Amino acid sequence: MTSSSAVHGTSPRDEVPYTLDEPAPKVLGFWDQSAFWANLGVSLFAFSGAYTVLAPDENGAPTLSIAAGIVAMIVGTAIGGLMLGLSAVPGARTGQPAMVLLRGLFGARLSYAPTVLNVAQLVGWGTFELIVIADAARALYDGVPRWVYVVAAGVLTTALTIRPLGSVRLLRRYVTAAVLVALVYFYVQLLREPLPDLTEGSWGGFWIGADAALAVSISWVPVAADYTRHARSARGAFGAAAVGYSATQIVAYVLGLLALALVAGDSAQVFDPFLHVTLGAVVFAVFVLREADQSFANVYSTAVSIQNLVPRADRRVLTVTLGAGTTALALVLNIGDYAGFLSLIGSVFVPMLGVLAADFFLGRGRGGWDLSRTAPARWSMIAAWAVGFAAYQLVNPGSVGWWAALWRDVREALGIAPPSWMSASLLSFLVAALVTLLVGRIARFRGR
After folding, report:
1. Residue 326: which of 23, 138, 119 has the closest Cα?
2. What are the backbone angles phi and psi of residue 28, rounded to the nearest 5°?
3. What is the pLDDT of residues 20-63, one digit of tens each?
4. Is the separation of the CB atoms in 353 and 433 below 8 Å?
5. CA distance 255 to 50
6. What are phi and psi of 231, to 5 degrees?
7. DSSP per-residue string spanning 272-304
8. Pairwise CA distance, residues 294 & 36, whole Å
9. Which positions are tagged coiled coil (predicted)?
10. Going from the N-terminus, what domains does the chain have, and what CATH number goes with each?
11. Which tens digits make up the pLDDT trace of 331-365?
């Protein structure tokens, strides 16, 4: 921080402003953004959560074969990457973070509801990331208590959030190359192992597996604009998010599924194939250290989301508080219902993206949204979001017991029997977008 910025309480010119009252600098080029999204695409979740794209049944047994899971993951990731790219554009064009954009979509006060949901899911993701980092670190060396790794990961995460754009540039300069080398090394090592028959199993539940992969991509949709508001061009923001993220998530998930095949589908042992190869522990440490960029992004975006509720709150104070909070949660929670968590995220934010994309690119957004703190309520957009959400639940109500039972009862009462090939994500996105365009046309007709 320069002396003048310290005196006047303003952020450096090449950094994220401390509050929403200051303009966002446009300092991230295409390669800065590509490296950022590419690093987010490589996650320990791709290894520990690889089983989710195999559409596990109620007993946790995989439905899909490894080969079918790979194809489902590629399809889901490719679709999710395009959705992520779409969500990146509004931030680059307006210079506003994700939850502030929802003022234009829903109205200022109505934007508080999705903001609270986003804060809740980001706190969950941030907590899960610290848990995964600690578990992976203990797999490397279990000579210290688990809490030491949790606290160390929490401290590193919090430190990265103080200068977020500096952290993005750090990823481009140093971390990306190390991650790529580690990926290539493990591909060579794992493919030398005697793999089982990857086609053993079925293709039933293909779209459930694809939706699981898509949900991981979609989890970044509600925060994409937090970073692309600093992009130099909207085109670069779209390409970096859509291609950079998708390419590395596909590479990482295939590697995770190969590791899962080597341990006979036991997700609790999925790190073992990495650690048992020559120099495996040393190279795997790259993934463990790099995972901090995931927790950094979650904690930082939680703070930016809260600023939609409290615009003059200092993001530094928020991130330090949130970093301490997620660390405390990671010390007492476990990662039990990861698949159910992903399903719930997708059912909320996929249809919201459908509403946002339709209205921003084809509706009122073409003339410019009102992003002020007094933006009027747009209940029709909330209705479109709700219809899309319901469409998702009718196809795939998830695995949370009482919630899934409720929507199965609704489906039975309506006489709906969705075919197994139907994608809940695609259907809810399209339904939400079409309802948005319909109510927009009705509003224009009534206005004339």
Report:
1. 119
2. -95, 120
3. 888 889 999 999 999 999 999 998 878 877 888 887 776 667 78
4. no
5. 9
6. -75, 145
7. HHHHTSTTHHHHHHHHHHHTHHHHHHHHHHHHH
8. 10
9. none
10. 10-337 (1.10.4160.10)
11. 987 766 555 666 677 688 889 999 999 999 999 88
In three-state secondary structure terms, 200 is coil
**Cα gap 82→421, rounded to integer Å:** 21
H helical segments located in 95-205: 98-106, 112-140, 146-162, 164-170, 176-191
Tens-place pLDDT, residues 221-256: 999 999 999 999 999 999 999 999 999 999 999 999
Phi first, then psi, for residue 202 (nearest 5°) are: -120, 175
Are 342 and 210 in contact by the 8 Å Cβ rule? The answer is no
Q: Report the length, in residues, of the chain.
A: 448
- Nearest by Cα to 205 from 350, 337, 399: 399
CA nearest 135: which of 300, 338, 398? 338
- Listed residue (84, 345, 365, 103) closest to 221, CA to CA: 84
Q: What sign for the dihedral angle of Cα 64, 425, 30, 34?
A: negative
Please identify which residue in the block is written with the tokens 């200022």.
108
Q: Would you give the DSSP letter of residue 231?
A: B
